[in-house]
Amino acid sequence: MASDNEHCGDRGRECTITVSNPVLRGMYPDPSWIWDATREEIVLVNSSFELVPGLPIHTTRDLVTWTHTANAVDEAMSHRLLIDGVEDSGGLYAPTIRRIGGRYVIVCTVARVNEVKALAAGCSQKDVDGCRAAQGNFVIEADELTGPWRGPYWVAGAEGIDPDIFEDGDGTVWWTQTRPALHPQWDGQTEIWTQPIAPGTWTLQDHKTVIWRGYGMDAVWAEGPHLYRVGDYLYLMTAEGGTSFEHSEMIMRTHAPRGFAAALAGFEKNLAAQDIWIEPARDGERSVVGHDNRLFEACKHNPILTHRHLGAGEPVQCVGHADLLLHPTVGWLLACLGIRETPGEEPGETFSYCGRETFVAPVVWQHNPVSWKLDGGEPNKRIDIVDPGWPVVAPGLGRLPEKLVVDVDEDGLPCAVRGVDSAGCDCAAGNNAACPAELIQLDDTRLVGVRGRDDYRFLRVDGQEYAAFTRPEYTMMMHQDSTHVVMVMAEAESGQLTAEITDRGDKRCIALGALGANEWFGLRLHGNRLEFLAGQPAPDSIDEGTMPDIALIAHADVTYARIMADCDARFLSTEWAGGFVGCLIGVKRR
Predict the structure, then answer these.
(1) What family does the database annotate (predicted)?
(2) Which residues have a Cβ under 8 Å from the Cβ of 480 and sit 6 or more positions away?
């Protein structure tokens, strides 16, 4: 993460800082965030899949410095969430974080649970039953961001993935998520449903109401829903197209000055007066999505965010799964996932190794400038003060900005944010400087475990060009998933290095040769090649007194390294392996 206001020079004066996207690098997908008035900072949580600890929480006051403040799921809670039994690319999907009733609340889904594996790993039958009844959907809560986090509270009757939690102005709390359409018109169609939930017990109340089924014909995977109140309107924002190259973000709204419940009731009353009935998907439910009548009106310039129209040469792909935030001094912001791609040799061929990362963009709200004319009104009456219009992401760019330009006041707080491409930026460096070498000890709080790799401690690979070194008494692993792995180890007496490569379960070994005196060994992602390295750490990178405690050097300087061998790295990419995760680099004591 970037360092604080040192980029501005001395404190106590205004300055401008540039921050490169992504703001969180490496596998930090599905961001959800809030402005936390109690802490006076932004709080952001990400999916963590099978990683433990999970649901990492970062905070920032200035959008430049991001601090890993907590993990909402510790090892004990991971057992209650059955992480021991999840399959590849399973685990904790798409959290939403909000403040509800003075508490921090995260809602989430644990997915791809193998119940037999979970029970064999010691998970309780009670949690297996609770997970099944809730289809993996749960709530955790805490009084303080740093914990302790309570739960999980399994939400019986929930269906699907990607839950959202929203407290309306009348105090009603709504649980909203996506499920496969019960009567789909085409493959991949989903539907967004909502239902009141009691925040004391986290039990669903009343009945489910289907509120959306996708933006248009053949729309697939409407998911990641979030509800927001802005003025007299309630906005529904969803991802669409799946989290690959067709990913996008859509927004809809309904007029709800007296609350969501009143808007739903009023819509049904108006239909009944016209003798219109929208058939629900099943008995006991409601639907406000008919052929000719919908509660939510779609934004005419949807999608409000996508890169799918930019072609395979665009270096950032798959953008979407967004969440909006109103900052007290800079206004509206959007966080979303995106994937940095490495070009392949063939035209249109790209590969990603870091997984889905967190990007940020500024947002403004605008009206159609001639809507007064279309509505038959007068120019001076064209904007209703309770009608905010529609969000425009990164105005003037039409895509995620490469950089954020942050104007910082004399207290080090942001007062304005704008998005620019590299050519439009002339300001002090923020997190776009080259990453210095990081010395990692085994007790570093950024390290995570992966189920099935109990002895290893991992870091997220966070660069398209990435090198790491370890000492000969450790074994190193680059991990994509359980069937796409590279392991390198040194024989204790001879120092002979061997690499074991696993690609879709097929294993092969490479004899790399012997380490020299005082040499460490490592791996380097370089384009679509993986290099096996040996060498002494850079002379200035490690204090001799701390050397025995260092397990891993991340972002290592390869100036003093020699290449012992290399291989095709594409089998470690998300495109090759499938699934939703990025690469990890890990070590264990031999």
Answers:
(1) Belongs to the glycosyl hydrolase 43 family.
(2) 571, 572, 573, 574, 577, 581, 582, 583, 584
* Secondary structure in 3-state letters for 173-194: EEEEEEEECCCCCCCCCEEEEE
Residue 555 sits in the same domain as residue 460 = yes
- Give this prediction's pTM: 0.93
**Is the torsion defined by CA of 392, 397, 403, 408 positive or negative?**
negative
Domain, as residue range, for 450:
438-589
* Residues paired with residue 51 on neighbouring β-strands, in sequence order: 450
Within a domain: 317: no
Q: Are 17 and 81 in contact (CB under 8 A)?
A: no
Q: Tens of pLDDT along 248-304?
A: 999 999 999 999 999 999 999 999 999 999 999 999 999 999 999 999 999 999 999
Query: Per-residue b/e over 419-431, b at no fewer than 16 CB within 10 Å?
Result: bbeeeebebbebb
End residue of a domain, out of 432, 450, 476: 432
Check residues 243 and 154 and name the one with the higher pLDDT: 154
Query: What pLDDT sits at residue 454?
Result: 85
Q: Which residue has the higher pLDDT, 428 or 208?
A: 208
Q: Are residues 421 and 512 in the same domain?
A: no
Question: How far is the C-alpha of 403 from the C-alpha of 425, rounded, in Å?
Answer: 8
Give the CA distances from residue 47 to residues 57, 236, 262, in Å, rounded to whole numbers and listed in that order.
Answer: 10, 21, 33
Nearest Cα to Cα of residue 95 among 82, 86, 104: 104
Cis peptide before 379 (omega within 30 of 0): no
Co-location of 457 and 424 in the same domain: no
The pLDDT score that the predictor gives to residue 426 is 45
The answer as to whether 79 is a domain residue is no
CA–CA dist 281, 291 (Å, integer):
14
The reply to whether 545 falls in a domain is yes
Q: What is the pLDDT of residue 97?
A: 99
CA dist., res. 52 & res. 91, Å (int): 10
Please tell me whether residues 480 and 575 are part of one structural domain: yes
Question: In this structure, what are the phi and psi dihedrals at residue 295, rounded to the nearest 5 degrees?
Answer: -65, -45
Q: Residue 547: pLDDT band by 50, 70, 90 thresholds? A: low
Per the domain annotation, does 300 fall within a domain?
no
Tell whether 516 and 567 lie within a shared domain. Answer: yes
* Residue 204, CA distances (Å) to 163, 339, 441, 498 in order: 13, 35, 45, 55
Give yes or no: residues 522 and 428 share one domain: no
Q: Are 407 and 489 found together in one domain? A: no
SS3 at position 37: coil
Going by C-beta distance under 8 Å and a sequence separation of 6 or more, which residues neighbour residue 527? 342, 465, 569
What would the DSSP string read from start to end of 248-277? EEEEEEEE-TT-HHHHHHHHHHHHHHTT--
End-to-end CA distance of the chain: give it in Å, rounded. 30
Rounded Cα distance between 478 and 458, Å, is 9
pLDDT for 338-363, tens place per residue? Answer: 999 999 999 889 999 999 999 999 99
**Structural domain count, the chain:** 2
C-alpha span between 83 and 505 (Å, rounded): 22
DSSP string, 322-385: EEEEEETTTEEEEEEEEEE-EE-SSTT-EE-SS-SEEEEEEEEEE--TTHHHHTT--GGGS--T
Same structural domain, 416 and 459: no
